Amino acid sequence: MRQPLSCVAAALLLAVWPAAEAGADGGVLVARGRVASLDCTVLAAPAPLRAGLSEWSVLLQRAADASVVLDAEVELELSRTQSGAAQGHRLVASATREASDNRLFYTARLRLPDAGDWHGSVRVRSAEGEGALAVEVVVAPGVGPLREHWRALGLPPLALGLFGLHQWLVLGRTARRARRSALRRQRR
Fold first, then answer.
1. Domain spanning 24-142: which superfamily?
2. Which of 48, 96, 118, 161 is deepest in the core (most CB within 10 A)?
3. How many CB atoms lie within 10 A of CB 41?
4. In what order do the strands lie in the sheet with 38-45?
C-alpha cells in the first residue's frame, strides 16, 4: 500500500526543518565567579554571540549550600571596547526573574549594536551582600535579514512546490486511469 503524498511531504518537512533556537536559559557560559558570598553564573544566547538581540541569564547560588537566591537585584552593564578604550556604546539593563522562562534565572535582553570586544559587569545586590562580576565577550557580526528570516521566506515556495508535485501526481494518475478505461472500451 502506498503512503499518501501528504504524509511523505510532512515527514520530509520535519526532517529538513531545523528546530527553533533556544533562549539563554540554554545559552553558552560567559562568566562564572563569586560575588559577595554568592556563586554567580552568566549565560548568553545566541551562541555564538552576535550583533543584534541577545538574551543574558544570571543564576545566583549561595556558596555554602548551592541553594538558589530568588530575591536579589541584578543589573547587567556592557561597553564596547577597541584597543582598550571605550567606544561610546554603553548598555545597561536590569535582569529580572519575570523576564525568564526559567524562574531560577534573572534574565535581561540587550540589543548589541555591533561586533567586537565587549566588557562589563553583572552587579548583584542581595541580603547576602553586594558586588560585581566582570564579563568579557567577543561579539560576532550579525546575520543579514535574509539569513535571519530564511525559514519564513522559504516556506511559501516549499508549499507551492509540494502542491505542484501533488497536482502533477494526481493529474498523472487520472490521465493513466482515463487511458486504461479507453483501452478497455476499445477491446470490447
1. Domain of unknown function DUF4426 (2.60.40.3340)
2. 118
3. 17
4. 28-35, 38-45, 52-62, 106-112
Unique residue bearing C-alpha cell 519564513: 152
Note whether 133 and 143 are within 8 A (CB).
no
Domain boundaries, the chain: 24-142, 147-187
Report whether 96 contacts 108 (CB < 8 A).
yes
pLDDT digits (tens, 9 = 90+) for 75-104: 999 998 765 554 568 899 999 999 998 989
Query: Any idea what the Cα angle at residue 144 is, between residues 24 and 149, rounded to 5°?
Result: 70
Q: Residue-wise over 86-116: b if at least 16 C-beta within 10 A, else e?
A: eeeeebebebebebbeeeebbbbebebeebb
pTM comes to: 0.65
CA distance 73 to 132: 12
